[in-house]
Amino acid sequence: LIGKMVRTSSRAPLTATQRRGLSIGCLGVAVSAVGAGPLTNWASSRSGWGTNGIQCGSSNVSCPSWSHGCVSATLGLKWACNVTSGWEGHPFTTCYTGAPHPPSSTKKNVLMIGDSVSNGYFLEGTPGHNVPDLIADVAQAQHAPWSPGSGGAGPTQHGVDCLDIYLRLATGDVAQWDLITFNFGLHNLANDTASLEMYTAQLTNITTRLLATNAKLVYILTTPMMPTCCLGGPLLPSGEGAPRPNCAANDTKNFYKCNDVVQELNDRAKAIMAPHNIPVVDVYSTVTGICGATYVNCSICRMTPCSFHYNPPGYDKISVPIAAAIRASLKP
Length: 332
What we know:
By secondary structure, the protein is α/β, with parallel strands linked by helices. It is built from 8 helices and 14 strands. The chain has helices spanning 16-19, 116-123, 131-134, 156-166, 193-211, 258-273, 283-291, 312-330; strands at residues 29-34, 54-55, 62-63, 70-73, 79-84, 92-96, 108-113, 139-144, 179-182, 216-220, 228-230, 233-234, 255-257, 280-281. Helix 2 (116-123) packs across helix 8 and helix 4 runs parallel beside helix 5 (193-211). The longest helix is centred in the middle third of the chain and has 19 residues, at 193-211. The radius of gyration is 19 Å and the shape is globular. Mean pLDDT is 83; it is low at 1-47.
């Protein structure tokens, strides 16, 4: 085992559905509308996934031929791709598409992969203070998946299933990324041993595949999660839009501290990055440095009591060390 183990309860191991944690219901995808058939006249400048790619409606978005086609989505570019799922009992994983813009020809190209907090420091801070703004003089940053307002890349299982799509442009075109930042954690909050081992194996899989791109890599630690969890999900105000946990609010025998799992996941992530000398940005400490080691309310939280999202000044604070790490890594 890597790192310290979280004390687990005596209950039975979680099912695959329970281990999905926050991932259920966060993607904002309507799977009823299927895109058009295989591409036959895709312009050579937008070769995408090739002549066997699947064009999504009349858009420039495409899905790979090895996927199960396009589905309409409520966010981002309004299209996503269904791929064979690694989740037990779930035939498909729905993957939002990759970056929406062509790579820059004059600056370095940075891809940021992560969840809703990653979306936050990418575009929800004070204008001019998001990560892309802070590095705009040297790099063009884009986010994958491109799904503002969603759970982003979700849990590590989504990362494993969707990574090949995230690494391409939304058109399906290959992009050469100079640097990739990535984070997984807040959608992996179950605390049974099987789930922790699954996180370790899947984050290792993702890291190995990212290393193969030859891009420079930066890992961003998971931010704190102070509410109580219950069977893989946090007990949160409904205003956060997260699904209900898999047990009743009075089922105290299955309560545990979400943040204990966050700390364990961060320890495991650091252990995975260390042999590859991948820089790790400690935004966990950025938050606790402002809010305290444990907290209920904090000035940078989006809600009271705090959950897992931040207000614009909070994302401004989190963006600073990330931008600094990107700058440092892009230096020759």
